[in-house]
Amino acid sequence: MYLIEPIRNGEWVYDQGTTMAIQAYVRDNIFLDDKIIFPYMVNPSVQIGLNQNAYEEVNQPYMDEHNIGLVRRETGGGAVYLDDKNMSFCYLVPNDGDTNIFGQYDKLYAPIIRVLEKMGVEGLEQKGRNDLTLNDKKISGAAMTIVHDRVYAGYSLLLDPDYEVMNTVLKPNQKKISSHGVKSVRQRVGTLRDALDPEYQDISVWKFTEFILKELLEVDDLDDAKRYVLTDEDWQAIDEIANNMYNNWDWTYGHFETFDYQVQQRFDGVGTLHIGLTITHARIEAIQINGDFFGVKPKAELEDKLIGTKLEASALREALADTTVDEYISGLDAEDLIRFILAIPSQESEE
């Protein structure tokens, strides 16, 4: 098995979009005489499945506030939070003979289970559709598809999960961290560190990954591993993929075709405001503003200004740059309206 690492000019690449682009480039262009493994660890980010609507899966206001990225992968499955405390692994495996693992998550997990058991972990089991559990708590979720007659698969391993961030970021429009919610996540999500033998209890994520890779690659030293080192030409193509796809707003947010979106709230000094939107490829196709508010200009004018606008703060600000929102909704300014549409908590608003 070949090892391909996300290392450029001697530095590990943490950008989630570039990491996905590396995998896509190798998947479609690099064909070697053996299986391939990619370890990857990224800046705090959420990775959503191919068929998921970003607006329904993540707490975007919280992500914006805490600089947490979002990327859409090309395989199905659910949303997962990734950060620089936990390592993930991706594989390219020929889809034939004994190596055929497509749809068989027990086979995908079997090698890593053997490695973790060598580190003292007991109680590992593949459960449900695609989860790896530790004493019935989830410590990994996997996804896979077939491309160019190879199985493209991957999973993350929770060595040090951040329960608080996981609980908050994967709950759309949640306005505050709930201690009950954090406890709930702790009940459902496990940690590998607590299950390791004493000699590994203080292991770093890098040493943890090194141990795993040496076992999977069957080498005593990673310097002896078979490697494919990405060339300058490879990186040029990878950058293009990242820019055109994984780091592209339209792919991440606009991929989902059409959905309806509604927000309602009472504002002090304004009244009750209800906005219903139809979102197509993450842009406002239709919008209707209702409520018991006052205004001196017809709300239809304000609605027309927002048609075709991306459902993101900067685009909404640009659309309203020359508009006095207070003329349409008395007591409300443009920033209040934008925060309301995007369900960003406002201290002035009433629940």
UniProtKB/TrEMBL annotation:
Q: Which one Pfam family would you cite for this protein?
A: LplA-B_cat
> Does this entry carry the keyword Ligase?
yes
What's its EC? 6.3.1.20
PANTHER family per record: LIPOATE-PROTEIN LIGASE, LIPOYLTRANSFERASE 1, MITOCHONDRIAL
Keywords (alphabetical) are:
ATP-binding, Ligase, Nucleotide-binding
Q: Where are the membrane-spanning stretches?
A: none
InterPro entries given in the database record? aa-tRNA-synth_II/BPL/LPL, BPL_LPL_catalytic, Lipoate_protein_ligase_C, LipoylTrfase_LipoateP_Ligase
Q: What class of enzyme is it?
A: ligase
Give the species this sequence originates from.
Aerococcus suis
Under the cellular component aspect of Gene Ontology, which terms does the record hold? cytoplasm
Pathway this chain belongs to: Protein modification; protein lipoylation via exogenous pathway; protein N(6)-(lipoyl)lysine from lipoate: step 1/2; Protein modification; protein lipoylation via exogenous pathway; protein N(6)-(lipoyl)lysine from lipoate: step 2/2
Return the NCBIfam families for the record. lipoyltrans
Gene3D superfamilies registered for this protein in UniProt = Bira Bifunctional Protein, Domain 2, CO dehydrogenase flavoprotein, C-terminal domain
Please tell me whether the keyword Ligase is annotated for this protein. Answer: yes
User: Which reaction does this enzyme catalyse, per its entry?
Assistant: L-lysyl-[lipoyl-carrier protein] + (R)-lipoate + ATP = N(6)-[(R)-lipoyl]-L-lysyl-[lipoyl-carrier protein] + AMP + diphosphate + H(+)
Coiled-coil parts of chain: none
Q: Which GO terms describe its molecular function?
A: ATP binding; lipoate-protein ligase activity; lipoyltransferase activity
Q: Which SUPFAM superfamilies match?
A: Class II aaRS and biotin synthetases, SufE/NifU
Q: What is this protein called?
A: lipoate--protein ligase
Q: Which residues form the BPL/LPL catalytic domain?
A: 31-224
